[in-house]
Amino acid sequence: PLPLIVWAGWARDRRASRVLMIGLPLACAVLFLLDPPWWTEPITGILRFFESNLTRGRTIPIPVQFLGIVYQTPNESLPWYNTLVWTVLVTPVGFLLLGLAGIILSLRQHKAEPLGLLILGNWGLLVALRALRHTPGHDGVRLFLPAFGVMALLIGMGARQVLDWFGPWAKIAVAAAVVEAIGSVLLLMPVPLSYYSPLVGGLPGATRLGMEPTYYWDGLSSEARRWLRDNTLPGQTIHFASFPTSWLYLRQTGELPRRLDPIDRGPPAWYVMQNRPGAWSRIDRQLAERSTPALVVSKFSVPLIWVFPYAAHADVEKELLKPAAQGLR
């Protein structure tokens, strides 16, 4: 509500005061309703929320690769400009240009149409909050995703501005922006979360810039899961580089084999890792750079998932342990 309060104080008219009186309690109510854990513990739940998020560095620091450099967030901070770079990287080109036009409109007509400044202020606050020092920065844009909802309003304002600038021809430009956005996402299916703007060369270009191609294991496609089922013998297990609870669900529904390391007994047959370099262990990095996978899930020639024989993982682990063992002699 901070931009709303500042905007109402700046506007100093009856309409702004009315918006503040209605919007502030409405925003608090919506926040409460969208957080079910707060319903039964409204005070404890809120305190737990802040404690969890303000002590993330002591509990689960998460490494993030950004422009080729790995940061241990939130103990280390991403560059102050990271949210702006992310916005450019993942916004379709047409929408990005319309958003810039919306920013220009909101600044130029702030007296005639003060609502534009409120929209711009909300977008700016959301982008700035996630850019603060020692703020968790993992999972791409997920932690400031609401900023893109507000950006949609700026894009709408930008479309109106373009119509004022160029008249009927602007309709073609707006339609082209919509087609580009829909088409570029469809081309990424079934892994739309690996979308990067054509402005940077899409997924291959962003990977060359040192951005992480994937985060959420969404690259473990139905074909990859079927391959694991068909190529894992009874009694064997599968070892994943990380273990989200969704593996338990996929095992229960039969999408994954019944045995998963380390919760089930049996020798691991496969080691499965995703192309998220910031989270790689030394073994993962060696496997990605030197070993031959049994299966690769890729998009536009960029690997998203590798399935290695577990023997390859064991060999790399043994090789990395040799110097330490020799030093103890």
Q: Can you characterise this structure?
A:
This protein has helices at 2-11, 14-33, 37-40, 42-54, 56-59, 82-90, 93-108, 115-130, 146-166, 169-188, 202-208, 222-231, 246-252, 282-290, 310-327; strands at residues 62-66, 69-73, 237-240, 260-261, 268-274, 295-299, 302-309. The protein has 329 residues and is α/β, with parallel strands linked by helices. The chain has three domains: 1-54, no CATH class; 62-207, no CATH class; 222-327, no CATH class. It has a five-stranded mixed β-sheet with strand order 4-3-5-7-6, sandwiched between helices. A hairpin with a 2-residue loop joins strand 1 and strand 2. The model has no long low-confidence stretch (mean pLDDT 90).
Question: Layout of helices and strands, plus pairs?
Answer:
Blueprint lengths: L1 H10 L2 H20 L3 H4 L1 H13 L1 H4 L2 E5 L2 E5 L8 H9 L2 H16 L6 H16 L15 H21 L2 H20 L13 H7 L13 H10 L5 E4 L5 H7 L7 E2 L6 E7 L7 H9 L4 E5 L2 E8 H18 L2
Parallel strand pairs: 3-4, 3-5
Antiparallel strand pairs: 1-2, 5-7, 6-7
